[in-house]
Amino acid sequence: MPWEPTVLNPTTALNRPASRSRFIKQRVARTDEIPVGATKQVDFEGELVLLVNVDGEYLAISDRCSHADASLSQGTRDGHHITCPHHGAKFDLRTGEALTLPAVAPVESFAVLVENGELFLEEKE
Predict the structure, then answer these.
(1) CA atoms within a 13 Å half-sphere pointing along the CA-CB vector of 100
(2) Kindly report the CA angle at 91 between 99 and 120, in degrees rounded to 5?
(3) Can you tell me the distance from the alpha carbon of 101 to that of 6, in angstroms, rounded to the nearest whole number?
(4) 109, part of any domain
């Protein structure tokens, strides 16, 4: 039988960072650990993530400000927004979008799954 090279699909194999090339779902907390209005910093695959309970809706974004690399978990929350404690940049907790200067780049957002009182994070596609 002749040798045949393996062909990689460039849209799936080459366009994603190696550390994020597989489907990731990880348990990070219990629902009773984060009451309404509370926040919690969790570790997701070695990355610090801010987990928030907004009126019973669990949201998660990267805990590092895209402008000053400050911890967003130390910031102030207003509804679906969090303000960086260093320079006042505001981010949308649902999407990670930077809403005010000095931040112009978004932070990563994550899907939060609730299963039997447990909270899981997944990467968003």
Answers:
(1) 9
(2) 145
(3) 47
(4) yes
| CA–CA separation, 93 and 17 (whole Å) | 24
Which residues, 6 or more positions from 47, have their beta carbon under 8 angstroms from its beta carbon? 62, 108
Asked whether residue 72 is assigned to any structural domain, the reply reads: yes
Enter the pTM of the model. Answer: 0.80
Cα distances from 2 to residues 5, 8, 74, 97, in angstroms, run: 10, 19, 61, 52
Tell me, yes or no, whether 25 lies in a domain: no
Least confident range from 18-22, 48-52, 67-71, 108-112: namely 18-22
Nearest to 109 by CA among 59, 43, 36, 54: 59
Q: How confident is the model at residue 124 (pLDDT cuts 50, 70, 90)?
A: low
